[in-house]
Amino acid sequence: MSITPEIKETMKASPKIQTPDEVLLSIHDLHVWYELRRFGFGNAGYVKAVDGVSFELRQGETVAVVGESGCGKSSLMKTILGINIPTSGELIFEGKNLAQLKQDELRKYRFDIGYVQQDPYASLPPFMSVQEILEEPLIISGVKDKQERIERIHKAMSKVKLHPVEDFIHKFPHMLSGGQQQRVVIARAMILEPKMIVADEPVSMLDASVRVEILKLLSALQEEYKLTVIYITHDLSTVKYFSARIFVMYAGHLIEKAETRRLLTNPLHPYTHALLAATSDPDAANAETDKDIPPGEPPSLVNPPKGCRFHPRCAKMIQGLCDEKEPIEFEPEPEHFCFMLAISMMKNPRFLTAFGLVLMLLGILLPFLMIVKIIEATYFLSFLSWGVSTLGLAVGTVGFTLWNRNNKR
User: Fold this and answer.
1) Separation between Cα atoms, residue 91 and residue 98, nearest integer Å
2) Do residues 305 and 311 make contact, with C-beta atoms less than 8 angstroms apart?
3) What is the structure's pLDDT at 396?
4) What is the mean pLDDT of residues 58-62?
């Protein structure tokens, strides 16, 4: 895979993973299925929007959930927000299972989660001023002192850089620019001092000139208040501003999870390769070339394909394996989890190079053990040593050649 200048910039700018103290949100084998009805009565199947998702988020951690439209990102988000009811699985926040919370506990849970919507204009009531918009969640949460509400509104507006506050507080949404509207949305999400923020493509409706400003604002707020942030997007070029980890989602599954730099430099899943290949690269030569993207469309979540859900579009599909066996999550390198068949790693140039080196070292180690008489020298072991070394050299050469060729593309 070629590393574009945009991806190189992302690798430099993305934050390193911190090691927070406690797990804030834990999700285990989460399923969210929507029932389909026939004529309003009979069951016609289920839309398996989220199908077996597991991960943990720690206090102060930032992650990005990326994937194309229809992969289940929004359903996962709504479940975390307490809007959707999980079909099965566990969603545990601060040690409490969301499915077991009573009504008053669920209400308090929602106060601890801030939500930044995708479309700021549609998410702000046009008949309410900025003060009324920001005051409403305070009233609902039980802040009865009028003066305290005004002070918290002024503080929130200052934090999102809507100052001087007096110039904005009495305006209505239509009197603000798109960037200013999104700042009001962020202020509303922060007004109750939540522990976690869920941002659903917060810059996709904004001009390119203000996207970086909004993302840097979210990053500054996250660092100041030690917030846990879930950033949902389909654009890998924007995750560099504050996401320490990336979760790649496809057809209801989290197919790859890794630290930002590691995923960009060594993507494992073919779908992740496709997402990176589609990343915008400001090069005039792109007008004369086509992007190498997988053919076809995402599968139906009502009747997903057997085996790996990406196999109908995958150029590396192994007949009789990928279309038959369900992939499992494994960890080929520290803190890098991939939802795929381990045998497909054999097509990874880095894996081939490393495997070849291991075989060569083993071939060298056997004669040494025979020389120092740790093991008995035999013709068979001598021949085995020569064969292993030769095989390792061949495999390593092939892997290094493919690796070098990919980097030159």
Assistant:
1) 6
2) yes
3) 66
4) 91
Residue 10 confidence (pLDDT) above 60? no
Is 160 part of a structural domain of the chain? no
Sorted by sequence, the CB contacts under 8 Å of residue 352 that are 6+ apart come out as 346, 395, 396, 398, 399, 402, 403
Closest CA to 200 of 369, 73, 109: 73
Measured CA to CA, the distance from residue 200 to residue 77 in angstroms comes to 8
Residues 363-378 have pLDDT tens digits of: 777 777 777 667 776 7
Tokens 């506050």 belong to which residue? Answer: 165
Residue 388, in any domain of the structure: yes
Q: Which residues contact 129 (CB under 8 A, 6 or more apart)?
A: 169, 170, 171, 172
Residue with the two structure tokens 């070629």: 2
377: domain range? 349-408
The DSSP code sequence of 148-193 is HHHHHHHHHHHHTT--SGGGTTT--GGGS-HHHHHHHHHHHHHTT-
Q: How many domains does the chain have?
A: 1
Euclidean distance between CA atoms 235 and 138, whole angstroms: 33
Max CA-CA distance within the chain?
91
Is residue 49 assigned to a domain?
Answer: no
In this predicted model, what pLDDT tens digit does every residue of 159-181 receive, in sequence order?
Answer: 999 989 999 999 999 999 989 99
Bridge partners of residue 254, in order along the sequence = 249
**pLDDT-based confidence at residue 356 (cuts at 50, 70, 90):** low
* Per-residue pLDDT at 398 exceeds 80: no
Alpha carbon dihedral 127, 128, 130, 136, in 10-degree steps, equals -150
**Domain contains 371:** yes
Alpha carbon distances (Å) from 270 to 276, 293, 407:
10, 10, 16
* Mean pLDDT for the stretch of residues 356-367: 73
Q: Which two tokens stand for residue 250?
A: 């496809």
Helices and strands in the chain, H and E counts: 12, 12
- The predicted pLDDT at position 409 comes to 46
DSSP code per residue over 330-388: EEEETTEEEEE-GGGGGG-HHHHHHHHHHHHHHHHHHHHHHHTTSS---HHHHHHHHHH
